[in-house]
Design goal:
With 436 residues, the protein is of the alpha/beta class. The protein is built from 13 helices and 15 strands. The strands form 3 sheets. It has a 7-stranded mixed β-sheet, with helices on both faces. A 4-stranded mixed β-sheet has the order 1-2-3-13. Strands 11-12-15-14 form a 4-stranded antiparallel β-sheet, with helices on one face. Helix 8 links the parallel strand 7 and strand 8. The protein binds pyridoxal-5'-phosphate (PLP). The site of pyridoxal-5'-phosphate (PLP) has 15 residues, from helix 5.
């Protein structure tokens, strides 16, 4: 483990954890007992000077890395001009420019409009608001294993009870869950489509459904990829019944999957897209981008928010778009994905517990099973490997309905050498834990 000699040792992770425990509620989970002191690119140093390679990217927020100089410069320049007017009171150009540039990058051969919020959950809520206002229908179909945020509607749409919904009900009505394709766990595309027909048969008429919302790759749910044929079937179903198709690209968006939006790989366009996380490299902003005829349905004042589309976040998001172009980060996303998959496949050949290496672009994960038995998802091994990795200086994240998936969301700006160093730590962590 490398240490940064320039950092003072006056604060320790243990002392800060003790303060955290007494001041903050338990529900605010903490993956690792580590407090960050500084970060650069794909590396973080903690308050004790320990260095970590960051394969988590602040949960999919740092596709352009920590403190990218172009983004820092853009935010500083914006800070010197104005940092808040509330867009609905006094407008500013960066907001409009960002909408124009995101619209140009969103698939769909139709007129589009965009507006901004602050968090992913808010973007999801807003997409549903627009779909309901436009269709004058109420029901929404989401998917088992999906994650859409921690607000009341976000929780209702989320398809996982523990821990996201436990104790928080009742939830908004008229939300139904279909099955998401997941062949590894026995759900084919045909099964998933049949589950929607079951909802139409048993729960709600198709012509009362305002929207179907899905993640092109389930994030928290376990990095399962919806095959393009599933998206095409959903498109046809939505067209048949007048339902709005929403792609929740909060985690997949901003280049993670090798294209700016994952839905570009569907061959059909959703009516609306939500974005957040990496679109502004860590500055809080989210977006709803959609068909103009839908987006114009809510009344003036029905959309927006005090901080929504803050000038600092708009400046950061515009800089992110520039960085993607200048550094060809979409190509890099594909290359990072291939390098990670090759390394993980080599690990899978060595450790039979790793039974699946999957992903789209650089959104890559492995799934772990006891003795390689697909009937026995191994959440304990997953937790132990992540715990060993952090001790060795690598930040990993787990996810999945069975908590047995290790996912990688490393900054796309990371060098090959850093990716290899991170994977070597992963390998050593597996070896150490399995030797126990
Ligand atoms: C697909 C998806 N939608 C929505 C959200 C919620 O975003 P936020 O935490 O910014 O509210 C997340 C967060 O992980 C997500 O992955």
């Amino acid at each position: 483990m490398h240490r940064d000699p320039n950092l003072t040792q006056s604060k320790t992770n243990a002392a800060l954890m003790a303060r955290r425990r007494s001041a903050l509620p338990t529900g605010l989970g903490q993956t690792y007992e580590v407090f960050a002191a500084r970060a650069e690119g794909a590396e973080v140093w903690d308050v004790e000077g320990r260095r970590y390679i960051d394969f988590a990217g602040g949960i999919a927020v740092l596709n352009t890395g920590h403190r990218h100089p172009r983004i820092v410069e853009a935010v500083k320049a914006q800070l010197d001009q104005y940092h808040h007017t509330c867009f609905q009171v006094l407008a500013y150009e960066p907001y409009v420019e960002l909408a124009e540039r995101l619209i140009a990058k969103t698939p769909g051969d139709f007129a589009k409009k965009a507006y901004f919020l602050s968090t992913g959950a808010e973007a999801v809520e807003n997409a549903i608001k627009v779909a309901r206002a436009a269709t004058r229908r109420q029901a929404v179909i989401a998917f088992g294993g999906g994650f859409h945020g921690r607000t009341l509607l976000g929780m209702a749409l989320t398809g996982k009870v523990v821990p996201y919904k436990t104790g928080f009900g009742p939830f908004p009505a008229e939300i139904y869950h279909a099955e998401y394709p997941n062949p590894l766990h026995g759900i084919s595309v045909a099964d998933a489509l049949r589950s929607i027909e079951h909802i139409f048969k048993y729960d709600v008429e198709a012509d009362r459904v305002a929207a179907i919302i899905l993640e092109p790759v389930q994030g928290e749910g376990g990095f399962y990829v919806a095959p393009p044929e599933f998206a095409r079937a959903l498109r046809a179903l939505c067209d048949k019944h007048g339902i709005v198709l929403i792609a929740d690209e909060v985690q997949t968006g901003a280049g993670r999957t090798g294209t700016w939006l994952a839905c570009e790989q569907w061959g059909v366009a959703p009516d609306m897209v939500t974005m957040a996380k990496s679109m502004a490299g860590g500055f809080p902003i989210s977006a709803v981008i959609g068909k103009a005829e839908l987006m114009d349905k809510p009344l003036p004042g029905g959309l927006g928010g005090t901080y929504a589309g803050s000038p600092l976040a708009c400046a950061a998001a515009l800089a992110v778009l520039d960085v993607f172009e200048e550094e060809q980060l979409l190509d890099r996303s594909k290359a990072v994905g291939e390098r990670l998959k090759a390394g993980l496949k080599a690990m899978a050949a060595e450790f039979r517990e790793i039974q699946d290496v999957r992903g789209l672009g650089s959104m890559v994960a492995i799934e772990l099973f006891k003795n390689g038995d697909l009937e026995q998802p191994d959440a304990d091994l997953t937790r132990r490997v992540c715990a060993e990795a952090i001790k060795r200086g690598l930040v990993l994240l787990s996810c999945g309905a069975y908590a047995n998936v290790v996912r990688i969301l490393v900054p796309l700006t990371a060098s090959d050498a850093l990716l290899d160093e991170g994977m070597a730590i992963m390998r050593a962590s597996f070896a150490a834990v399995l030797a126990d």
